[in-house]
Amino acid sequence: MAIVALLIYTQPIWTTFFGKIFLNEIITKMKIKAVLIALIGIFFLLSPWNIGSIGSPQGLVSSLLAGVFLSLWVIFARKTGINRDYYISTISVYSFFSFLWLIFIWPIVYLFYQEDFLMRLSYNFPLEYWFYFILFSIIVAFFPNSLFYKGIENVEASKAGLILLIEPVVASIVAIVAFSQYLNSGIIIGGGLILLSNYLVIKE
User: Smallest Cα–Cα separation from 7: which of 68, 49, 76, 74?
Assistant: First the structure.
């Protein structure tokens, strides 16, 4: 899991690269420094040296591609911000098509993966379940994405990609407070480095 997360969090590298290509953003020495510091922070935060196996090649490639596509999502969001597209309209369309994609792709995926622990979605769920699905989507998807699309109107994609790395830091803090997770040196050092990288890009 740590290796998967580590590869996904290579996103700032790709975002900085694609930002230069598609948005003509300037790659400064400060951005490069901030990206390197953030990646070292992620490395400490996830502590990949504690795992016994790195997993299959297919899984590693898929995780790396996830980081690439995540960076393209940031680029697309920044593009809508530059065009001054209304962020609520953007996130509404994004959410709607994501929902349609899930509904239509599920039967196809189910043809290949029928294990219960992978495919638990069912059209026969009680109405109460669908209510909680919608509530969950609004709280953890619609609101955060709306804030992201609004904020990126005034923030470069490469900087936004770095700021997004605060997510694992916040997740660690929540885990410590809510689930009594042990606060280790990796969390302290990694979280500190990620916060430092954010300070550098915000200050620039």
Answer: 68
For 88, the token pair is 């609520």
- From 193, 152, 158, select the one nearest 172 (Cα to Cα): 193
Q: Which of 38, 22, 42, 40 is nearest to 30 (CA)?
A: 38
Domain count, the chain: 1
State the angle between helix axes of 143-151 and 87-112 in degrees (0 to 180), rounded to the nearest 10. Answer: 130
Compute mean pLDDT per 10 residues along the chain, 204 residues long, and list them.
Answer: 78 95 94 94 81 70 89 92 81 78 74 64 78 86 87 93 90 84 84 92 82
Burial label, 72 (beta-carbon count in 10 A; 0-12, 13-18, 19+)? middle
Nearest of 139, 163, 136, 137 to residue 151 by alpha carbon: 163
Tell me the pTM. Answer: 0.81
Which residues 6+ apart lie within 8 Å of 10 measured at CB? 39, 64, 67
- Give the domain range for residue 7: 2-203
The SS3 of residue 163 is: helix
Rounded Cα gap, residues 51 and 108, in angstroms: 33
